[in-house]
Predict the 3D structure of the following.
Amino acid sequence: MSRESLKWLNTNTLIGFTSKRGNAWHYRASMQDEEPNHYPGAIPVDDIQRRLFGWQALSSPVYVEDPRGGLALVPERQAILRSDTGHVMGIFSDGYEPHPYGEWLICRISHLLDDAELSIGSAGLLRGGAVAWVSVEISDNIRTPEGVEFRPHLFGATSFDGSLATTFKRAVTNIVCDNTMAAGLTERGQQVKIKHSRNAKFRLAEAREALNIVYALADGFCEAVRDLCRTSVTHRQWSAFLDAHAPMPAEAGRGRTMAENKRDSLARLWNHDMRVSPWRGTAWGVVQAVNTFTHHEQTVRGAERAERNMLRAVTGGVEELDRTTLRTLSVVLDRPLAVVA
């Protein structure tokens, strides 16, 4: 299942701290079955184990139809399937090592945080259960003097379909638009990846050092927001940014129509949308406009928006988006931006 329906999102994702950030965009009370998937505070670990991870990923031999009759075993191959539904999530070599969700996304994150009490802000399954994530967050939102409200978190994700190595990384959720943003907007290396192989090792001390854990996020992000809010972007510079970010093809056609639509959407966000317009005229407003457009309005092909956004948060698309925006803006302003690495 690669296209997550509203029903799936309301029964296979859990959203916490709604008293701090409100309901998710996909919330539908009529699709909640017997239990709501939204929690005013942290999501209980037992609920995640019971509601999302209460099944096993089983290894099964792979057979193909033999033209002479019967079935033939495919050597050195295995299928990974769900114990509760039989859904085949992926086919791999026999060297592939599944990383059970409960062990890798709850127990190992707990060890990263020195066995501190987990405050889980979101968790979910995508692609029929072949992809999972857990987000550990602090209890309260942080608000900068510039009015930017955010939540730092440690994000863990893995897969049984080969699409993701097990990944732990720092990130930030921007409350006003429910967007994921790079932890330091331009910082690199603040993630740990473990391959699904028998020789891959999880080195706790190295992971802690690389991630610097959740609590160190706030100061760096606040400084980046401050610097960007202090960087003025005039109307002429905003127009020049649009020309560079979404250039207009000379010839009429689909490409020109797409560019026009993108520029119109960005201009509307910049001028009229409360997720962006309070910071219009600043470099932060530019980052907000591009990030919000990409998360919530850009056409998504081959996947549903929730799946695309979550996978981009894990695979680095979020960081690259913000870095690219800032590099383009730096060229337009003809001067380096302090936060650009």
